[in-house]
Write a structure and sequence with these properties.
heterodimer, A: 201 residues, Rossmann fold, 38% helix, B: 44 residues, alpha+beta, two-stranded antiparallel sheet
Chain lengths: 201, 44
């Protein structure tokens, strides 16, 4: 790539959309990653909290770790979730920040947004909303967030420096980024990095 | 990369076997892929 990135960002974005559109529509189809309630147990989420959530809030969850394991949220905090998917982490965050706080989930996939918005309505939540957008250009005003979180999404973006620059932009001074993502212990060969299919499989 | 982006007070949690027992386990093992939780702060 002439811009120094190993794959085309737009093509990768379309590949990711296709993959997670399928998860939104059919979360039980079976993927190369775990999903739903079994995954929340594997990742160490508080089972009491997860049990209280409806299936629609949990079944399309496809995170890779537990961003709440490095610290909970405070009452009244304003939170942005990058790549909110079916909304699972947003619903947990909404419970922690309470009615005086606010959670904004950002996702680019229509089907995930439809799922998360319908679930929020069904749960009667007024402190969480879902906006369409990409995490390299967040639909959030400067310095709005106390906390930015994410789960298994940043690794799917080719320009991570741009993502972190956006996180810096939307965080207030002293705000925090708490997220879960995958990291590899062995170096991935350059040829494999240029294979767009390997980014999502 | 977090440091390069200006974050401070960075903490990384223990690894989680995210892909164990899933279809993607073999590829994950090949490159020692695990899930981690990260905490980083924007300076005041």
């Amino acid at each position: 790539m002439s811009n120094g990135l190993p794959v085309d960002a737009i093509a990768l974005r379309e590949e990711v959309k296709s993959k997670y559109r399928a998860v939104a529509v059919n979360p039980h189809a079976g993927y190369h990653f775990h999903t739903g309630r079994p995954l929340t147990r594997r990742l160490g989420y508080d089972e009491t909290v997860v049990t209280a959530l409806p299936d629609s809030a949990v079944e399309a969850f496809a995170g890779v770790g537990n961003p709440f394991s490095v610290g909970g949220l405070q009452r009244g905090e304003r939170v942005v979730d990058l790549g909110s998917g079916g909304g699972f982490d947003c619903f947990i965050a909404a419970g922690q920040v309470g009615p005086e706080g606010h959670v904004v989930g950002v996702d680019m996939t229509e089907e995930m947004l439809g799922r998360s918005r319908a679930t929020a309505t069904a749960m009667g939540l007024h402190n969480v909303e879902f906006r369409q957008g990409v995490i390299e250009e967040l639909p959030i005003e400067d310095g709005w967030a106390d906390v930015v979180m994410s789960n298994g999404v940043i690794n799917l973006c080719v320009d991570k420096h741009q993502v972190f620059a956006e996180v810096m932009r939307v965080l207030r001074p002293g705000g925090r980024l708490q997220f879960a993502d995958i990291a590899n212990g062995k170096e991935v060969p350059a040829g494999a990095l240029r294979n767009i299919d390997l980014w999502t499989d | 990369m977090l440091e390069q982006s200006g974050f401070v007070d960075i903490q990384i949690g223990p690894p989680v076997d995210t892909f164990g027992g899933a279809g993607g386990e073999s590829k994950a093992r090949l490159f020692e892929v695990y899930g981690y939780a990260f905490l980083a702060h924007k300076s005041k």
